[in-house]
Amino acid sequence: MSNRLIDLVNISKSFGSSLILDEMNLYVQENEFLTLLGPSGCGKTTTLRIIGGFESPDQGKVLFNGSDIASLPPNKRQVNTVFQKYALFTHMTIAENIAFGLKIKNKSKAYIQDKVKYALKLVNLDGFDHRMPDSLSGGQQQRIAIARAIVNEPKVLLLDEPLGALDLKLRQGMQYELIRLKNELGITFIYVTHDQEEALTMSDTIVVMNQGYIQQIGTPETIYNEPENAFVADFIGDSNILGSIMLRDELVEILGVKFACIDKGFGENKPVDVVIRPEDVELLSPNETNLNGVVTHLIFKGVHYEMEVEANGFTWLVHSTKMVPVGAFVSIAVAPGNIQIMNKPVSEDEEATAIDE
């Protein structure tokens, strides 16, 4: 990735008395697949609409290649948006739908025909030119909406939960299609979703948001393996999150039991939060470690078994390819590198804004 294409500088936005974005700073690199991820109401769609020109920030700059475009209307920006509701024109053929933006730009007939053919090929819908939108499946309609956006050759494609209306199998297929399109076209993708799996599958960079603040920015691997606070850990995948005591560097007390870890610099006898992923919890024979419990719940998930283990007053979530039956007594082990230590937030506000510098 070469250079910054979009820079959001100190962006704030309120609707009535609700503050949606609070002095947000974010940059997007050229040819990046960046995903804004978070729960409903966290500000991700508002951020997308500000980039697209459908909302104006109350304060701050929207820089595109270094120029402030905050006051430019959507049609003057080098961005195109694909919404969850595909908004295809039902009285137009597929070819007419795709050509709509090019006709407004007064492109020649030959140019438009070439571009429509190219776009249909890209989204694997060759020969659909004369079909009507209502004859297509949801997945096909979504591809047409994407084709209509990419014929305009935007530098940036904005996608607002575009796969939300599709069933699971179609959604997974479209995820791979979008990655392929991004790689083939060299377009920058900014994608909004509340689906963690979708974000982890497709993104180069994930921006986790909550209550108008950015919680963490990083690669899918970093976000999953090294969450910076309890919100990120809880939101991305399943987690065991426990209040613990950092006794000293590389030693933490969890539920009254000492565990070796690899973290340093948290001080001595300091309250911390610990995150342990379910797949990192190892179940051993009773009394092999100092943390013992009993399996209380078991589900087969296809790839692994999901178990719950009651130990020292905490219900541990465990994912393992080895089945341990309900009622079995076990001890719990966790490798030092799989214990993630985080500072405890001091207040609720800090909980929303906490990012380790």
Describe this structure in words.
The chain is an alpha+beta fold. It has two domains: 4-225, P-loop containing nucleotide triphosphate hydrolases (Rossmann fold, 3-Layer(aba) Sandwich); 238-353, OB fold (Dihydrolipoamide Acetyltransferase, E2P). It is built from nine helices and 20 strands. The protein has helices at residues 44-52, 94-104, 109-122, 138-150, 168-185, 196-202, 220-225, 230-235, 348-353, and strands spanning 4-15, 18-29, 33-37, 59-64, 67-68, 79-82, 156-160, 188-193, 205-210, 213-218, 240-248, 251-254, 257-260, 270-276, 282-284, 292-300, 305-311, 314-320, 329-333, 340-343. The strands form four sheets. Strands 6-7-8-3-9-10 form a six-stranded mixed sheet, with helices on both faces. A hairpin with a 2-residue loop joins strand 9 (205-210) and strand 10. It is elongated, with a radius of gyration of 24 Å. Residues 353-357 have low confidence and may be disordered.
